[in-house]
Write a structure and sequence with these properties.
The protein is built from 10 helices and 7 strands. Strands 3-2-1-4-6-5-7 form a 7-stranded mixed beta sheet, with helices on both faces. It folds into 2 domains: 223 residues, Spore Coat Polysaccharide Biosynthesis Protein SpsA, Chain A; 67 residues. The protein is an alpha/beta fold and 307 residues long. Helix 5 packs parallel to helix 8 and helix 7 packs parallel to helix 8. The protein is 50% helix and 12% strand.
Length: 307
């Protein structure tokens, strides 16, 4: 096991790259935050809790457990909390950052496992995966939903992971420099995959165990739809050719197939299937329009990126 500081310690001014931080976004987690902070302090040099407008004792308990606490003025969402914490980590030139949730579902004692590839220079980002053969008490409905979101995120981002929705991650200094999130809400993990693709970061996964003894705080269906909506928005912004081109090609292909059927029917019976013909024409027009829209937006985005 890699030897890390057992308690927060000041980092020398001439060696800022030795700082390893844990950034913990938390909203109304006073039941669990102390345990997360105390266990994390065993493995990192500094623990930073971003209190996202909690109305309970989260901030006070986190400070009492030895964490530095940044208080958001109101509940602004996980992405905003992480942006705040990661901005501070960049200011302090952290060599590596651990992202871990404050709800106690993830085990802070897995931190060395996530940090090892970062410190060895083998990866820019390491994701703790719940689906790499390690059994836990994850409910089946949750597994199904997470796998569905992972499949969509993988296809949309072009980066393949086994667990795209895991919030337990380690970032290198190189990855930290690029982690600024634009999507609101809880699609931040999916957005990381788009950032990984855009900046050619090296990603690895390690197996972790999670604890789901507690009932979810958020409605899982609503939460899943929010994440899916965020993914679709990011696809439209980051991969317009994929977002518009793939549906356009599907629509065009279906329109052409229906068109062939209309022509075949006319040749056999000398009768025009007007309804099918209109459907075929509409699909072909929409398909061509969608493909050209994707090409134009892709060209504009490439031009803006180069500038």
């Amino acid at each position: 096991m890699v030897n890390f500081a057992t308690q927060p310690a000041p980092i020398a001014q001439d060696a800022p790259s030795s700082l390893i931080m844990a950034v913990i976004p938390a909203h109304n987690e006073d039941r669990f935050i102390a345990g997360v902070v105390l266990k994390a302090r065993r493995h990192v040099g500094h623990v930073l809790v971003v209190d996202d407008g909690s109305t309970d004792e989260t901030a006070w308990i986190a400070e009492s457990a030895g964490a530095e606490v940044i208080r958001q003025p109101r509940n602004m969402g996980k992405a905003a909390a992480l942006n705040t914490g990661l901005a501070i980590a960049r200011q302090r030139a952290a060599a590596a950052v651990i992202l871990i949730d404050g709800d106690g579902q993830q085990d802070p004692n897995d931190i060395p496992k996530l940090l090892a590839p970062i410190l060895a220079g083998e990866a820019d980002i390491v994701i703790g995966s719940r689906f790499m053969g390690v059994e836990s008490n994850t409910p089946r409905w949750r597994v199904f939903g997470q796998q569905a979101l992972t499949a969509v995120t993988n296809a949309a981002s072009g980066v393949a992971l086994t667990d795209s929705q895991s919030g337990y991650r380690a970032l290198s200094a190189r990855a930290l420099a690029h982690m600024v999130f634009k999507a609101p809400g809880f699609s931040v993990e999916s957005e990381m995959q788009f950032i990984i693709k855009e900046h050619a970061l090296t990603a690895r996964e390690v197996p972790i165990i999670v604890n789901y003894d507690e009932a979810p705080k958020r409605n899982p269906i609503r939460h899943g739809l929010q994440v899916l909506n965020g993914i679709l928005r990011m696809v439209g912004q980051n991969r317009p050719l994929f977002f518009f081109g793939v549906p356009g090609m599907v629509a065009l292909a279906v329109g052409v197939l229906i068109g062939f059927s209309v022509v075949s029917t006319y040749n056999l019976y000398s009768a025009l299937a007007v309804g099918n013909a209109l459907i075929a024409i509409t699909l072909c027009i929409l398909g061509v329009f969608s493909i050209f829209t994707g090409v134009i937006l892709h060209t504009i985005r490439a031009y803006m990126t180069e500038r």
